[in-house]
Amino acid sequence: MMTTLAVASALLATPATTQDAAADDGRSPSRPLSAEELDAALGGPIIITARRREELLQDTPIAVSAFTAEALAARGVDTSDALANITPNLTFRNNPAFGGLTNNAAIFIRGIGQSDFVPTIDPGVGVYVDGVYLARSVGSVLDLVDIERVEVLRGPQGTLFGRNTIGGAISITTSAPNPSREEGHASFAYGTDDLVEAKASYNIPLGEDVAMRLAGGYFGQDGYVYRPFDDRWLGNSNRFVGRAALRAYPSDTVTLDLALDYTHLRENGAPYSLVGINYGTTLAAPPFVDIHNVLANLMAGGGPMPCATAAMPYNPDVDGCLDDRYVAGRFTNLGTGPTFSDSDIFGFSLIGEWDVADDLTLKSISAYRTIDSAFARDGDVSPFTVNHFADELSQYQYSQELQLLGRSFDRRLDWIIGGYFFRETGTNPNILDFVVSRFRSGGAFEGSSIAGFAQGTFDVTDSLSLTAGIRYTEETKSFTPDQVILENKLPFLPPFDAPIFAPGTRILPNVEATRRYDAFTPHLNIAFRPSEPLLLYASWSEGFKSGGFTQRVFPPIIPGITTPILDPAEAIPSIAPETVSTYEVGAKYNSPGGLLRLNVAAFSSDYKDLQIQVFTSVAPVFQNAASASIKGFEAEMQLDPGGGFFAEASLGYTDAGYEEIDEAVTFVDPDNDLALISRWTVAAGAQHRFDLSPDQSLTPRVDLSYRSGYYTDAFNTEAIAQDDYALLDANVAWRDDKRGLALIGSVHNVFDTHYLVSGVLSDAFQVFEGAYARGREAKLSLEVDF
């Protein structure tokens, strides 16, 4: 392992297939390469927009990993959650959580993020497509079809990107239509578990100044967790994505981009299996499994004791006992309740750029997006009704951003000023069928955000620049609960014999609760280039994530009865924003006379008012009950010594721990680790291109990724913790450039490593659930350019 770390600490993550440019371009091998020459030698300049304007990656003094479409294809990355295997200090899980979604992004960068899909709480890492913010984590695990590049920005991006980028941002840029040429690309793949992937894109010039681009894909694969009850396989894929884009140049100074996208998903549900049962008394909630097992024991003629305990976890004499007979392995689910995951996602955007003058550009980004989804799962993973979940989620969002970008003082000052408006509305009713009660939770939510921002970079000298920026954000959140008890299943059993558990009782007041928040998020940066190959920088930035509401509540909160709060709107539980202040130093280096790129960064973050999710009752609730200190570093590198060989790697380290936490409120030990955060992340890859002829080549490649152990919940429950694991991927690509053909064979997870993607435990439910990765996968792909 130390050897792996030593190698990885030397390497980076912006891969591209390259050729021995030093021998071909006639330059002197003794002359240092400029940043532009090195980028060209590594497969073309990596242009990014991390600071809302086009810059070379190596000229941008912030921690960012950028991947071209070709680089991602070389690694076999075709969905956004796979970025976690190649990016330091990034956790990106397709996390089913409590609802059983099969497309829910749980993203953490440098220890900061959010895992729950609930729409009254915002994500901690912003996801952007062509500059458009995706407000909900539902639908944010994206198929990377017809993209130009992906940028992963680490650290708070509160100045230029704005809302809820406290941990960082993932920015995806799609391929734009091009009026100058007609071209297309198509691919078909078949693989493990009847995997079928079909993708195509086509660029169509409609005139000298207008072009259209169409792209789409189908992704299908059988599931891998078997459910005997209805002969279904959970964890399957069955989705279609489509995109249409139109680019027009009404004049020499104006560019208009119109885009439509659609995703259609119909799947069997999350691949959960039962890991174990927590028999015995829970901390602060009615023990659902124990209650069920007491009733089962009584029905079987036994006494008022559970039919299964920690000392006797299997009781074959009681047929209705929920015990270890249902712990059937990671690839079997013995549930009988409804399980499915359906989504329809639509997006529209209109982006306009007007070059007002030589050094002045006005840009507008208008967007509208919708999500309509329904999903359900059997949370007890048994033939009984102990805890079943069913959700509907509808969300609508509109956003408008204006940017004015310019250069002043003989182009020594690059500046941007702008304004942003965002509004969303939606509903999330959910039916919860528990052993003690059946009720409707959820309600309607609204949110709006208005912000103004400005940032400027001034070149003090040719080698020294200063950047300063600030953003002011004002947000309003509203929540109207529509929550009512539908059935009391245990009216004879205390405390459920109380009137507050009777059918028709409101769980939360049926009124609108509104909270308002505002924040200034500044950014300061100094960059110094002591020589052409080396860039040094230091920065300080702040970020904030909006507050929200605890949507899931049980037992009922009734003003003046179960709570001393008399105002119904104030009785609806809410949380305040969380904030972070981050200091960072870094260096970016291009080796003189050689094809080497090395980027390093170290950071320290003061993270306050964490919106920590805890399970101290029936429902998972959020509390501003903690502060944390996070420190770490990243190192990334690319190496191209020529002769067709190429290597790269990255290393990330995150040391995250609570500075303080209210253990009496959260039941979380102050010494616990933050959930879903690995201390070490490592990636390394190497490939060698063999030229078979002037037009044909054969390129084998291997990629290794390593992630140290992590806990999947705030309690650091060992039963659903994941130990260290490593993944090895391998592929070999044959290409015929003249004919535009490629044949690629690939194997993901060569050694069939099984690791936990998501773990779920609620203290009341008493069941440990896990969703494991599929395991080894192989596929054969045929690609054609036309």
Give a structural overview:
The protein is mainly beta and 786 residues long. A hairpin with a 2-residue loop joins strand 5 and strand 6. The longest helix is centred in the middle third of the chain and has 12 residues, at 288-299.
* SS-based class: mainly beta
CATH-defined fold name: Maltoporin, Chain A
N- to C-terminal distance: 45 Å
Number of domains: 1
- Give the averaged pLDDT, no decimals: 91
Helix content: under 10%
Summarize the structure.
This protein is mostly beta strands and about 775 residues long. It has a single domain (about 1-785), classed as TonB-dependent receptor, beta-barrel domain (Maltoporin, Chain A, Beta Barrel), CATH 2.40.170.20. It has 7 helices and 47 strands.
Write the SSE topology.
Blueprint: H1 2-8, H2 21-24, H3 35-41, E1 47-48, E2 55-56, E3 64-68, H4 69-75, E4 90-94, E5 105-109, E6 112-114, E7 125-129, E8 132-134, E9 147-154, E10 168-174, E11 183-191, E12 195-205, E13 210-221, E14 225-227, E15 232-234, E16 237-251, E17 254-267, E18 272-277, H5 288-299, E19 340-357, E20 360-378, E21 387-408, E22 413-427, E23 430-434, E24 437-441, E25 443-459, E26 464-481, E27 484-488, E28 513-531, E29 534-545, E30 548-549, H6 568-571, E31 574-575, E32 578-590, E33 596-608, E34 611-614, E35 621-624, E36 626-642, E37 645-661, H7 663-666, E38 680-688, E39 690-691, E40 696-707, E41 710-711, E42 721-722, E43 725-736, E44 741-748, E45 756-760, E46 767-772, E47 777-785
Parallel strand pairs: 7-10
Antiparallel strand pairs: 1-2, 3-9, 4-5, 5-6, 7-8, 9-10, 11-12, 11-47, 12-13, 13-16, 14-15, 16-17, 17-19, 18-46, 19-20, 20-21, 21-22, 21-23, 22-25, 23-24, 24-27, 25-26, 26-28, 28-29, 29-32, 30-31, 32-33, 33-36, 34-35, 36-37, 37-38, 38-40, 39-40, 40-43, 41-42, 43-44, 44-47, 45-46
